[in-house]
Design a protein that fits this description.
Order of helices and strands: EEEHEHEHEHHEHEHEHHEHHHHHH
CATH topology of the largest domain: TIM Barrel
Helix content: 40-55%
Structural class: alpha/beta
Number of helices: 15
Shape: globular
Strand content: 5-15%
Bound molecules: iron/sulfur cluster
Distance between the termini: 50 Å
Length: 366
């Protein structure tokens, strides 16, 4: 395993981090814990979860795994998050999280999912910053962090406020443009940097032909190449992968073991090949999945990815028919209320995509 400094904290973290939002067998605690222990034995130390991944089951699974890691003498660092903003709510949530995780303090505690500067201003008005600082003084959290879906100048502005010691945001070989400016603040404030969704929520490994241009070695898979692209960026402290199965964990561990940095020429070559179709892709995070009209937005947006990637409408309608069994007519229910666009972690124009999809003819199954 390779390790990198987490900003100015003095803590080193494993370059490959374990994300707890995609367990394939969350109800099989033994299996999920075994996967976490395999990661820890291979040297993974950064373990990231949240209070709402599979309800509270991800944090509970982490708690069981951490107990085993302590028994086995395996080092680990805990990372989790809170949506809450008032002192009373944050304290109540943190108390429950410490109990679920079975730890006396959280190593990296994140203000979770900042999607707009207005929303961040509201959390500040509620007293989040003062509360976070008190919790650190009391030793209940060790490092103050933020998980943000802001892009461009906004994420830089948030980080330059100097509140946080580290940041977590989505970053991959195809969407790095949107968050490039975050690195200016990360360097200026010497922040730790964890990136999530490095494989586009599965989009990269599920489309190996389309993403084959990421590979510059014969002995790597497209997922390993996508990770190598990120590992080569020394501004990143840890790359979080949400593993649904142990085979994925092993594939990613192999990417670290065999890591050789990409040359500047290789990186420039990849960036040059990223045309229009690789931009503005849905990562399947599901944050928009609460449509008042009951529209299955993530499924429709996943199908829209196929239209962009393959450059034809039928790729979308085929995906809806064969993979999701959803009609494009579903999109016509959209009232343009805007709720999903407000929640979208990738700032995608969901309403106009719903209009486009609604105008398409369903794929005729033969
Ligand atoms: S804008 Fe349309 S798709 Fe989005 S939440 Fe509102 S009704 Fe649903
Ligand atoms: S449309 Fe946006 S919020 Fe919804 S699943 Fe895709 S990336 Fe996530």
């Amino acid at each position: 395993m390779l390790y990198r400094p987490y900003g100015r904290t003095g803590v080193s973290v494993s370059l490959l981090g374990f994300g707890g939002m995609r367990f394939g067998a969350i109800n099989n605690r033994e299996k999920s814990v075994a996967m976490m222990l395999e990661a820890a034995r291979a040297g993974v130390t950064y373990f990231d979860t949240a209070p709402d991944y599979f309800g509270t089951r991800s944090e509970e699974t982490f708690g069981d795994a951490f107990r085993e890691m302590r028994r086995l003498g395996l080092p680990y660092l805990s990372a989790t998050k809170t949506f809450k903003s008032t002192e009373r709510d944050i304290r109540t949530e943190l108390e429950a999280q410490l109990a679920r995780l079975g730890v006396p303090a959280i190593d990296f505690y994140h203000a979770w999912c900042i999607t707009s500067l207005e929303g961040w201003a509201g959390r500040k008005r509620d007293g989040l910053i003062t509360t976070f600082r008190k919790l650190k003084e009391e030793g209940l959290v060790r490092h103050l962090c933020v998980s943000s879906h802001l892009i461009g100048d906004e994420i830089r502005e948030l980080l330059m406020e100097g509140v946080f010691e580290g940041v977590l945001f989505g970053y991959s070989a195809y969407n790095f443009h949107a968050r490039e400016k975050a690195f200016e603040a990360i360097a200026a404030k010497n922040l730790g940097c964890a990136v999530m969704n490095p494989l586009g929520g599965g989009l990269i490994p599920q489309n190996p032909d389309l993403f084959s241009f990421l590979k510059s070695r014969e002995d790597e898979t497209v997922a390993q190449a996508a990770l190598r692209f990120l590992f080569s960026d020394t501004r990143i402290s840890t790359v979080l992968v949400g593993f649904s199965a142990v085979e994925q964990l092993r594939e990613c561990l192999a990417a670290v073991e065999r890591f050789t940095p990409m040359t500047p020429g290789e990186i420039a070559g990849i960036k040059a090949k990223l045309g229009e179709r690789f931009l503005e892709l849905c990562t399947g995070c599901g944050y928009c999945d609460d449509c008042p009209q009951g529209i299955p937005i993530p499924k429709l947006m996943d199908a829209y990815n196929h239209k962009r990637l393959y450059g034809r409408d039928t790729a979308l309608t085929e995906r809806l028919a064969w993979h999701w069994n959803v009609s494009p007519e579903e999109a016509a229910k959209c009232t343009a209320c805007g709720q999903c666009e407000e929640a979208c972690t990738q700032h995608l124009p969901i309403i106009s995509r719903m209009e486009e999809i609604a105008a398409m003819k369903p794929h005729a199954k033969s």
